[in-house]
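debug: dumping io for the single-chain case to check the tokenizer round-trip. Nothing else runs in this session.
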Amino acid sequence: MEKTLSVKHLIGIKDLTKEDIELIFSQADEFKEVLNRPIKKVPSLRDVTVANLFFENSTRTRLSFELAEKRLSADVVNFSASTSSVKKGETLVDTVNNILSMKVDMVVMRHSSPGACLFLSQHIDASIVNAGDGTHEHPTQALLDAYSIRESLGGVKGKKVAIIGDILHSRVALSNIYCLKKLGAEVMVCGPSTLIPRHIAHLGVKIEHDLRTALEWCDVANMLRIQLERQDVGVPYFPTLREYSLQYGLTKEILDSLPKKIVVMHPGPINRGVEITSEVADSKQSIILNQVENGVAIRMAVIFLLSQRRRSQGELN
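debug: decoded output
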């Protein structure tokens, strides 16, 4: 019997089992092979329609999802809130119901409100893939990050991963913690105390405020950008960007002075010269471009497996 995911939607890593994650990775392995062929397309989802709903600005994630859908031969509908009736006051459910009346099977959604994808999944029949909801979760980013670590280091279990930067405002950090812990990695968060959530230790992570200590401990450093757009105006989390960079910016000098070679990651977009220098981003220890490539394979796997589950239960339109 063919394996299927235990969930109908991908709302967050929190909902996935370890077996779900390993199934996604196994399927992504197959799709990576497809992506390296001269013809980078398979007819797997020729009968499936996917709507990409982005209520927040996005370039990399939206393009990655769109490319993944087209590589699977799905029909794709793109929706941008900035040019839609949302501007006229239309509700989220009305917007989606209008799109579903066009017989859409799956909705990939990014929204500024935490829980928006969960809310949607309770009101419509299509499968929902969370492409980032506020400061809550960004599950496909965590999956591609863990997949990239597995590819680079041969596995995730037992590896030490430091997530460094703006943990407080990062949906990537939370999803990464859930994913890495489920796969047996050790996780440390590092940053100024003002950017570390108060109760994060309950998730079973170590907390460190000194960059060098974190880098000497880890096998992998996942550098997060400062999310100025999500920080409360008037609340100074640190004196200046320059001061933050001096304390928590990863330079080639620091990297070369470490007692061992570590892997450097970044979910993007990179603020070069703030959390990471160009020299580090473009160095041999960086797997940032691998992450981008793996993002398409992982998103193909997620969309394919969710569609397969719907097909097996007779839910496709």
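debug: round-trip ok. The first strand starts at residue 49 and ends at 54.
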